[in-house]
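ingest -> validate -> predict -> emit
validate: passed (alphabet ok, no gaps, 325 aa)
predict: started
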Amino acid sequence: MNRHIIDLFAGPGGWSEGLRRLGHTDIGLEIDSAACATRGAAGHRTIRTDVAAYPTAPLVGKVSGLIGSSPCQPYSAAGLGAGADDIALCHQGLDDLAAGHDTRTALRDACTDPKSLLAVEPLRYSLDIRPDWIALEEVPSVKPLFAHMGRILHRIGYSTWVGVLNAADYGIPQTRRRAFLLASTTHQVTPPEATHAKVAEPETLFGPGRTTWTTMADALDLAPGDVTTRGEHTAGGNRFTTTGPAWSLTGRARSWKLTTTDASPERELSSAEAGVLQDFSAEYPWTGSRTKQFEQIGNAVPPGLAAAALSSVLEPARLPLAVAA
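emit:
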């Protein structure tokens, strides 16, 4: 029987592109029509559905790996932040699922933002399907939920690692920090080894040191310059230089204003350029309006960061799997 990799909240294909770089494919579950269209144009298989309503029974015995990046808006500083009010309900949801009780409907009704509870969906799938490995990603504020989920998974035989990774440490031209939960039933999980550093490291007897972070100017082949971030309803904004990695992209990057030292006029960042900063190819087929394209880009996992995380669960580690206590 063929076994598949299932990608929850698949978005436009960040995890899928990371898997493609490693020679694997997935089937994405995604509800947003623009993201589904982008995935289709990029050649990624997709089921348009609500992850919270999708049945797990048909997947039992058919899934080798589970990926998940639930919507970050409830927990993101760039969103409404309602997830902070709902975090206790999410922890309760995890404990209830671990005890065999599905209380999601009641808890969702009690949440300030119903999307907050989507963060528990990967555990529902994991407990029902029991994949060989799991890789989850979210904004750093979700790390306590991942740690809770990791303890539950450890009790049923998974080796787990929970931590925060910086995309710039893996060659992505962006200082994007994200929490990850990595788990495996076949080998001891360790975090992916960083390949880049803020300051280049010298070569040692053990091999070359990490190279310096990739700059925004180098990634986009631009003359040095500055980016001014502007909200939709503000005339000001913060400023950063293109001689380092870009700041973390969100959908609001559509309002970034770019100036360079070669006297080019100030201009907005294109969706293709934003995609490159998120580690997609310049030709990636973003679909929908400019707002929808930037929303997809800002929500996506950078493929290079996804590939680094996936290498920890797809490739056997040196340490054997420890038996859960």
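The chain has a mean pLDDT of 92.
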